[in-house]
Amino acid sequence: MAFISNSKIFPANHKTIFVLDHTPYFGISCESPIEFEFLKSRAPGFIPFNPISKSLWTCSVESAIEYCRIVWDLFPQGKLIRFFASDTVAHIMNTWSPSQQNLNHVMNGMSLMGVPPPIRQTQQSKDYSVVHGLRAAIEALGECTDLQFEKRKADVNAKLINKCRIICITSARDNDSMKRLQEIFNNCLHAHNKAALNSDTYLPIDHCHLVIIHTFPVNIESQVTQQPARNISSLLTTEVYPIKAPQISNKLSSLILQHYELASTTVTGIPMKEEQNASSSANYDVEIFHSKEAHTAILKGNTADSLAIRTVKEGLEYETVTLKWCTPRGCASSELQNCTSMYRITPVEVNSRPSLCLINFLLNGRSVMLEMPRKAGGKITSHLLASHGGEIFIHTLCTARSVLEDPPSISEGCGGRVTDYRITDFGLLIQQNRLLPIKSNYVGGLPSSIPKVKARLGRHTKYWPLTISSTLIFNLKNYIDPLPSIITKEKITDEEMVQCKQVIYNLIALESKHEPLHLANMGQRSKGQKREEQYKIMWNELETLLKNNCHSETHKMVYNCLIECHKFNSDESDKVELDQALRELDQMAKSDSDVRASVIRATTDSPMSPPPLASIASPMARNNQNRAGGIYATKRSLYDIFMAQDKSKTRLDFAGRTGDNVAKLYPNLKIENDRGPREMETE
């Protein structure tokens, strides 16, 4: 557990070191000219300024400083960055002290360093190398930061996880030179860890992430190829990027999103007045960086909507989420909003006019809503920009229902506009399964009640219809109470078992008297439901309830009582089904009057009619062999019933169907007499 907590407190971005190559090679021009003349109208004889070009050293310093500005804007504490410049020796720009973790201190150190010395023939013998800076960086990574020192002081035996990152901006001849540089760094890393084992001052390095940016002028082709992240050893992971000098800042902007788990948001459609014409305005875009957690809610939503707002930044390697400016309507930053999270922001182009206008607008106490368009149409307000205490934050707004709003209507469920939920019964279910806290003094002497509570809740919900229309027995409380409340108990007494059986006997008596069932919740029978169908549904549902609650022997006795009282024996069931089948066959074939009489008998003795009282035997008199299969026998098709009947009781079969007898069809068709050919007769 201590190892995991230390990993979270001291991640790899807790310590970051920039090692900048200050050798004479970095004093050359990057060959990317910048026009220094901005005047549009030129007088005769005017001599324009020549274009200027930055050196490799200037491009490296500017890019590294911008990297630090973004980190320190978003993380005022806990993310430490140091700078080393390397030529013949390593030059230290700042320490891990919080007082030196600022841009002014670093810029002052850079100005004292100056530009790299020019390349001269007399300086070729001097030992100019970036290795000096890398060795000093490894030694600095072994030093304790204030946070690590406090952790070690609090627990001397605690294992501190010392992960770190080094970003080296240098230049190499080819891949072999880059490989040798990585091997030298790996050897120095292992040597430091061996020395740190016997030291009370330095920490061993658990893992180091080395990012090497190989830079070169625009007009030169690089002999170093890009190398993705790979493990040199268990302590070292390296990656190499060949980048032209003017593009170093773009590459570091992509890397910083990975190193600090950041995301990009482009605020589009910001109206701003033109400097030349104050009466007109134009729309601008401003890109900001912040924690990627601010996008979690919208990116986990509708896939089509999230894809529509995600685009790859032009000329860069990362994605940005585009959100539209929503015109402020008197909403000040002091007003409360329903937010789920809040993170600091910083503009990507801090010196651009649109960024300055947006930052000043927010620092003046105003707030900006950001809208996310939906692909299906419409839009939703997803984020809010506002300042608090001189710092600007992005707030993730709740896009779902809030607890501060009125509760949703019961008819707005996921399954459509359902209006007949068993709300009263559900409230009773909650009351029956409430949990009460136990005082800590008695917890130790009592067994755990969680399994018991779960078992109780499982019994109560094993069969619990959600809506009034999906159940019948729970709408017949005046007929079946107290059976439902008794049958869900873990154990029932003999007296309660007698009460359950009495409910079953009362229902049998009602069915034998052909009395309809009056529903308590609906007031009357549902439309189009006959009495016979009502009883059939009631018996099936009652069996389901009892069958799912056979928790003990007494529960099973109640279930067996129901099965014994309402299982039609096979002879009676077959007779009723046979009569019904004959009725349907005779209606289709339109048979003679004798068969029609059987149809009348079948009609009066309907298969769904309740059995007479004489046919209901006592529960103990029934045969247990007839219990299987439920209350009603499984329905058979018309063909099965027809094939199962006794053929001896029906009419004789046609002679031409059996044996070898072949009956000739229409034998007297061609016989003639005095009146001519005989008419066709059918029998």
TrEMBL record:
Compartments in which it is found: Cytoplasm, Perinuclear region; Nucleus
Signal peptide: none
Keyword set, alphabetical order: Cell cycle, Cell division, Coiled coil, Cytoplasm, Developmental protein, Differentiation, Meiosis, Mitosis, Nucleus, Spermatogenesis
Pfam families xref list: Mat89Bb (PF10221)
GO BP, sorted A to Z: cell differentiation; cell division; centrosome localization; meiotic cell cycle; regulation of mitotic cell cycle; spermatogenesis
Domain of life: Eukaryota
One annotated Gene Ontology cellular component of this protein: perinuclear region of cytoplasm
UniProt cross-references to InterPro entries, sorted A to Z: Cell_cycle_regulator_Mat89Bb
PANTHER family to which the protein is assigned, alphabetical: INTEGRATOR COMPLEX SUBUNIT 13 (PTHR12955:SF1), SARCOMA ANTIGEN NY-SAR-95-RELATED (PTHR12955)
Entry's family note: Belongs to the Integrator subunit 13 family.
Subunit text: Belongs to the multiprotein complex Integrator, at least composed of IntS1, IntS2, IntS3, IntS4, omd/IntS5, IntS6, defl/IntS7, IntS8, IntS9, IntS10, IntS11, IntS12, asun/IntS13, IntS14 and IntS15. The core complex associates with protein phosphatase 2A subunits mts/PP2A and Pp2A-29B, to form the Integrator-PP2A (INTAC) complex.
Protein name as annotated: Protein asunder
Species of origin: Photinus pyralis (Common eastern firefly)
